[in-house]
Amino acid sequence: MAEVDFYVLEGDPPPDPQQFVCRLLDTVHRRGGEVHVHVADEAAAHALDARLWSFSAGSFVPHRLVGMPGRAPVWIGWQPPAQPGEVLLNLADEVPHFFSGFRRVLELVPADPPGRDRARARYRFYRERGYPLRQHTFGGGA
């Protein structure tokens, strides 16, 4: 059964969600993990791809868009992966139907009210199905 971690962004100002995602992926990569990042659509995939190239002058997160040739520890896609993996970072509004094939699921809880409401709905989805849930809070421009 997948373990689900929620990363709550809060504070004044709250951390930038895109920057937080890049740092989170950098951390997973440095620890030797592989992650599939599920985004809402192709435009979001290309936006994250571009952000990962430029988020930090001192870091590089090897990544590829799903469907590209080669190997990378970070895959970004808006469709189900060919095969499940170790970690799924869900950046879409809904829980993807393939989430249970992963050992860990990471969910972002942005500070804006609509984003927070969508994250609460995903939290309820996992809780109602008995998945183990953890919450990590990050604040103040991280």
Automatic annotation (TrEMBL):
**Could you tell me which InterPro entries the record lists for this protein?**
DNA_pol3_chi, PolIII_chi_sf
Example GO molecular function? DNA-directed DNA polymerase activity
- GO biological process: any one? DNA replication
PANTHER family (UniProt xref)? DNA POLYMERASE III SUBUNIT CHI
What is this protein's record name?
DNA polymerase III subunit chi
Organism the protein comes from: Immundisolibacter cernigliae
